[in-house]
Amino acid sequence: MRQKIKLIALDLDGTLLTNQKTITEHTKEVLKKAMKQGVIVMPATGRGIAAIPKEVGTIEGISYALTVNGAAVVEYPSGTVLYSDYLDCKTAIDALEYGFTLDALPDVYMGGHAYSQRERLHNIDHYIESITQKEMLLKSRIPVDDLKAFIQSHPDKIEKINIVFHDLSQREVAYEYLKKNKNLTVTSSMDNNLELNSKTATKGNALVAFAKTLGISREEIMVCGDSNNDFEMIKMAGLGVAMGNAIDEIKEIADFVTKTNEEDGVAYAVEQFVLKEE
């Protein structure tokens, strides 16, 4: 018999958020009901805390967020770090320098914020076609003149390197090259990016480690996700839920496939596995 769920971790893009980057009122109400029953609800995202949509803050009761693919679990919305797994400076610089050799837009996540090389950010139209993705990136990136020098002057809290590609075939070549690096975990959340974290930094590792500090076992965790960077947490959780719009690799390992992010898929899963228990 499945254990009672005590913690729900939710990916944001393609999961909790609709394609318009909003959260439906029905989903908000369902999550509030779960929290009233004592269940902890937390975002689990590749974003830094600064890029978590303000609408998440309208769901009263959310106190924690797993950010940057597990590089940092923080209090929400204060950003106080409760758990961290950062990239070492040399690995980050090596990955960044490789990114600059590509027809790509690399950036660095540090302290909950994302920083981009000013000159490449100004050329964003070349790298990204999607208006929604472009707007999201421009809102969340802080331009700096020399990204490598910036990292070297702040070496202790490097969370992630993100690389957005103009040429998807070049992305595949980069993936094959980067995954050989024993110091990196290489994932993605979109079909045109790669996300580089510490070797041990995954959403799954961070979630299980943080839950343990709350006295919650992995069997008592439910997660919802749709992308490659959700793989580990869906595999490790007691109840792994794939969105109806998830990639095939996620659906194959999930315990349950819910409706899509456009059909209140998160709410449907919570109703089935959490609220029905009461």
From TrEMBL:
Spell out the GO cellular component terms annotated for this protein, sorted alphabetically and separated by semicolons: cytosol
Annotated InterPro entries: Cof, HAD-like_sf, HAD-SF_hydro_IIB, HAD_sf
Alphabetically, the GO molecular function entries are: magnesium ion binding; phosphatase activity
**Pfam family name, one:** Hydrolase_3
Signal peptide range: none
State the superkingdom. Bacteria
Q: Which PANTHER family match?
A: HAD SUPERFAMILY HYDROLASE-LIKE, TYPE 3 (PTHR10000:SF8), PHOSPHOSERINE PHOSPHATASE (PTHR10000)
> Any idea what this protein is called?
HAD family phosphatase
Q: Which organism was this protein described from?
A: Candidatus Scybalomonas excrementavium
